[in-house]
Amino acid sequence: MFILHGNWIPSKNSSGKFLFWAELTRDTPDIPLRRRKGQAKTNKFPLHPFQAKFEEIKSALISLNLSDMVKFSKEKIILLLPSTEDSKGSGLPQVSSPLIYSSDKEESSWSLAPWKVDALHLPFISTIFWLSCLPQRNEQSSDGILLGDDINFWSLVSKFGLELVARERFIPSVVEKNGNLHSRWQPVITQGDDHERFDLFCESMPASCRGFFCASEHAFSPDELVLDFLTNFIDIFVRHNLLLFIKTFSFDEDITSLWLNALSREDGEIKVSSHHKEVLKKHISSWTEPARIGKEESKWQTCLRLEEPEDMDASWKISFHLQSIEDKSLLIPVSLVWKKDESVLSLLGEEFNSVEERLLLDIAQAERLFSPLGRSLEKAVPVSSLLNKNEAYNFLKEGSWLLKECGYNVIVPCSLVGTTQIGLSLSVNPLAKPSDSNKRFFGMDSLVEFDWKIALGDETLSLEELERISRIKVPLIQMRGKWVEISEDYVQKIQKFLSQTKEQKLTLGDALRLRLRGNEEGINVVEFKLHGWMEKLSSGEEEFALEEAPSKFRGELRPYQKRGFSWLSFLAQKGLGACLADDMGLGKTIQYIALLLHHKEKEKMDRPVLLVCPTSVVGNWKREIERFSPGVKFLVHHGVERHSKKRFFEEVKNKDLVITTYSLAHRDKDDLCKVGWYGTVLDEAQNIKNPHTKQARAVREIAKGYRIALTGTPIENRLTELWSIMEFLNPGYLGSYEKFRKTLAIPIERYQDEKSSKVLQMMAQPFILRRLKTDKKIIQDLPEKQETKAYCNLTKEQVTLYQAIVKEMFTVIKGAEGITRKGLILSALTKLKQVCNHPALLLHDRSETIKRSEKLNRLCEMLEEIIAEGNKALIFTQYVEMGKILQKHLQFLFAREVLFLHGGVPRKQRDSLIDKFQKEKGPPVFVLSIKAGGLGLNLTEANYVFHYDRWWNPAVENQATDRAFRIGQKRKVIVHKFICTGTIEEKIDEMLERKKGLAESIIGSGESWITELSNDKIKEIFTLRAKDALGIEEGV
């Protein structure tokens, strides 16, 4: 595990620097001794025992997309960290995550101590580019790199700096360094939302950002650190971009020109005399004063109020007021201030004497931001300023916003907020039948009937009225009692658009995009009416008819499952893609099986449906189909013995369903593309979350007929994952990948843009159905405890090891009897169970890759969804070594602490682990050995229980499950028991199921009962069904 950190180190006399350092997992850290009295000062600061070396930090940065062409400088940094120390003077620093090292020391025993670490320094321009582009994340990269809280924090601050540059919220200024004058670009964050965000950054700064050791006594506050970082960010970023385009400004050699030229130079120094230095500082301070309005301590602020004329031809007016900061509704006209009204005197109190001067100064500075206000200064006591229509329009569009940014409050009449604009209304009706006679269903490309109208608010305009308006040359007119914004170019754009659309056709996809995203040509679509079933679809109403479960469906659909199956049927009938995104355990599989049977009974299915799923769930689909719909003819297209080309086409002819895997979707794409599928279904559809992978592209090419995606996590980390699934379901609906990122994903993820978020929600909602187990409508339909069996295949390595163990056992038990025979059988049984768990458990080879065990792979897939939903899980295993493998692998995969309790854990530490897990924000996964964790524990924070390997006594397993399913549990508990198909695990499970009623009374506490079986029975149970284990058998 590698955790990357970063610290901004400010400097009083220079530009400061950003240093990267890192923590790295060490199995046996060297615990250094601290310097004692009399020791040499060279040992003053011990090396951090978990620090990463220079080259390791460099490699991590390069793997995180930092160019290897960047110049790196090596440095040492001293960090002040909470640390332990014993009586011998040895100790350890506190690490940022228990993933690095877990200490059993109590927090009260920590004290601050300095530690030396290797650090890398890059050119600051390279650092800020990298930080600004860094995705915000808590999960680790594929290289096992996790970002520390400090890196994520400075990344957010960098993005804020980038926003300030994009919105031009910076000004040129000067600063003194070592007695010399330097030009400086500095941020403007004294007002409004920017100031609030700045304060929020300061309040939420992680402690590690301040953890650097400072030789001086001054400790930098969060405000100082953030402001210093932002100031350096703005200065270097603006200066860098100026250097790309110009070398110097072309001005005369006066002091102002020297300053302007210095703003575009890298060093920024202004070489002037002491006298000129003071003159320049004074002039620049005066010039930048409007950007600093509102910084003074006062209970009142200057307010400008725009007043509309009663008559269309009369002048507009801006009146001046004092406004209370505490009570925004309290306004005092300045005319009363000039008159020294008694009521005003009592309100202002001691501030009155300074208010008159403040008002005149504010109005004078406001005039520099909006020049028509200068007319008011022609009078001794300015009260208001008159404007013509064009000036009023400019004030609404530009002047008011600039004044607000500089600290003035501006009030405009409600009738002018979002001034009424001429727009278009659209009415859309679905056709009675699909526009393409060759299609069974509607679809995104189906044509619809539509009618455009010109709209002014709630009223409709004729083309003649629009033409008359276009001849008026003023930006604001009063029409039908409303002020209307008129742009000649805009009106002409509407006229052109209407003339073009007379001849054009509109598809359902076009209509829905217009409804939710507006017209991309910049025309305001003010009203959008959908009719018929399209209206229900767009509004997200569940007004579709509830279907009855198919007559041949063997089972019972719960009410929410019936709604889900009916919703899938509704969208499939309309030819629209649907994503069923129910919580794990709510039965997505059987809802789709019901739909498949429904189509088989009600529709004339002349072609099979293609189901694509991960290899790990192929066996589960096979069993669920056999259980709930035995009449369905299916083919498992998987494994080395799968058919291809002509034989494959013959095999699929009479099938209702063909099951294949994501990896084969790419490999066998040519064959799969040649089948005209009745529908295409993706299970665990998050497997195509990266739209650029070969399997995601292959699935999109193969897809035909209706399209359905089943997933518990339609979005895991990025919104582009949702785009990928929607592109499969309804191609083109969310636009191109790049356009989606630019217009929706980046504004939402990076800037939390509410408007974009609402648009995406409205666009996706009609096609995604997600129910949670916490929903009261759902929870009443569920049993208190659900038990399911998770079937897994074996890898080829596991099959080879398994068969070798069985062969060896049959050889040695032939002549063995009594205790010897029992010992040999139990030894073989243990080895077989270890192989089913993971080959590393048997071989002790420390190669714990997920690819070696399908069981581990399936566990990780399921945990990914559980953790993403904020749930917690217990994992029981009877092998301590397996517990260690699980803990190490899951911590690496999810970059979250995973707890492990086994018999060797001391009582005090055991209680600490339980308390940590039971906290609401504690670790999401707790691995327990079934003996140590099977009794006496209360772990009700978990609502998922996994039996990774089976203890063949139901009573023991139930006792373990009851750690979560007990008094205090407020949620449904879902239990998953892992079974490897074709192995001894499946065969013994079948025996126990047959004897379920007697199991607890006839079976002992362990597995010794197996040794009592005859050699023939042992052979039957132990022999591997290789095809079943590898998942390559065919269906019927």
UniProtKB/TrEMBL annotation:
Record carries keyword Glycosyltransferase: no
GO molecular function: ATP binding; hydrolase activity
InterPro entries, A to Z: DUF3670, Helicase_ATP-bd, Helicase_C-like, P-loop_NTPase, SNF2-like_sf, SNF2/RAD54-like_C, SNF2_N
Helicase C-terminal domain segment(s): 858-1014
Protein name: ATP-dependent helicase
UniProt xrefs under PANTHER family: SNF2/RAD54 HELICASE FAMILY
Lineage: Bacteria, Candidatus Desantisiibacteriota
SMART domains given in the database record: DEXDc, HELICc
Pfam family, one: SNF2-rel_dom
Annotated source species: Candidatus Desantisbacteria bacterium CG1_02_38_46
Keyword Manganese attributed: no
Alphabetic keyword roster: Hydrolase
Entries under SUPFAM superfamilies matching the protein: P-loop containing nucleoside triphosphate hydrolases
Domain Helicase ATP-binding residues, every copy: 569-732
